[in-house]
Amino acid sequence: MLNVLGQVLIYIVPFLLVLTVIVTIHELGHFGVARAFGTKIDQFSIGFGKTIVSRRDRHGTEWRLAWLPLGGYVKFAGDLDASSVPDQAGLAELRSRVEAEHGPDAVKDYFHFKPVWQRALIVAAGPVANFILAILIFTVLFSAIGSQVIPPRVGSVEAGSAAAAAGFRPGDLITEVNGRPAKDSQHVIRVVSLSSNTPVRFVVERGGLPVELVAVPQRTQIDDPIAGNVRIGRVGLGLASSPADVRQVRYNPIEAVGQGVMQVGDVLGTTTTYLGRILTGRESGDQLSGPLGIAKASGALTDAAVNANPDPGYMALNLLLTLTSFAAILSIGIGFLNLLPIPVLDGGHLVFFAYEAVAKKPVAAAVQEAGYRVGLALLAGLMLFATWNDLQKLNVFKFLGGLAS
To answer: What pTM was computed for the model?
Structure first.
């Protein structure tokens, strides 16, 4: 029983804590821009379900803390629910009621009657807040700690591998990957991992001269301590730079901001590349993770940080840095997910607003209602698929099979 409780504390609590903070920042993005435009807001909730504590501010907004820590929401005045999904008949009734109770001028304070550009900015502010949060986190980390740059020097080449067939040799320094400078070892690993069965062009420095090589990564299943069982591209290279090659780089505040922006761009670039390969049939999508996988990764990172050094001070600092970095990555993921052009997500709202701006009229009520139904189905399907991936990576089915036998 104590072991189970310990696993819950390690895996679930850090994930819920980080998720709640990130979603709260997301909703504060919506809230801040809406308040700047004078939008009437009924509720700002941290968590869902029954209210634990609440207070009402001078603008009439109820700030509430609820018992289920799975995010939160902003509820604008006149919303039929916390998702701000409009219903045309409901909006017409709302306009009539507001005009009757408060006069025609009061309508302008309601979200659904704001100019389309203001509604678009309010909706986009949530994902933008997630990206800004990630940039701030990376900026602080780069300012305080800097970064360790490990050059991608080849330490070993597996016999019979794609790298051996391409002509790699120990001691080669990889300087370019697919026409772009190789920043460090992680950059090379990231490109190769996402290029299964796709030729990757390398330029290596050998004896002071550039040599061009082409290798085709093979999709290989590995047991990653963080992600679980995943299939990634591998060419059979072992990157092992000498201590003399490794550099610790320090950044001033301006440079740290630039590095933070670049880090967010790298994560978004990797994400879009992977999704693009899924859509073109070059990846199976088995690396997509849902809440179970993210919680597992959070727990694995927490466990590694706690066990890295027995010193309490070092342990606490390492845990703080680990969870902070994890929060930045998760914040980018949530911001990106919300920008997907799926109705019910922020990106879907923005698509409807773009149509309204061009056509000078809102999307037909029937189309919106059908779009939201399709969007919910797509979102549910995506979550089920990601959860299936999580169960596979966690070997749940193998475990259950063992119990049955």
So the answer is: 0.81
Whose CA is closest to 282, among 363, 194, 206, 164?
194
Q: Which residues of 170-187 are buried (b: 16+ CB within 10 A; e: fewer)?
A: eebebebbeeeebbbbeb
Contact 330, 290 (CB under 8 A): no
Structure tokens at 204: 């290596």
Distance of CA 120 to the CA centre of its chain: 21
The residues pairing with 249 across neighbouring beta strands, listed in sequence order, are 147
- Bridge pairing between strands 228-234 and 218-224: antiparallel
Cβ-contact 382, 284 below 8 angstroms: no
pLDDT (tens digit per residue) in 214-266: 999 998 877 665 555 677 889 999 988 777 778 888 899 999 999 999 999 98
Amino acid identity, position 190: R
The neighbouring-strand residues paired with 43 are: 62, 75
Contact 241, 150 (CB under 8 A): yes
Q: Which helix (H) or strand (E) holds 51?
A: strand 41-56
Task: Please provide the distance, in angstroms rounded to a whole number, between the alpha carbons at the two ends of the chain.
Answer: 24
Catalytic residues: 27
What does the alpha-carbon distance between residue 186 and residue 183 come to, in Å, rounded to a whole number? 8
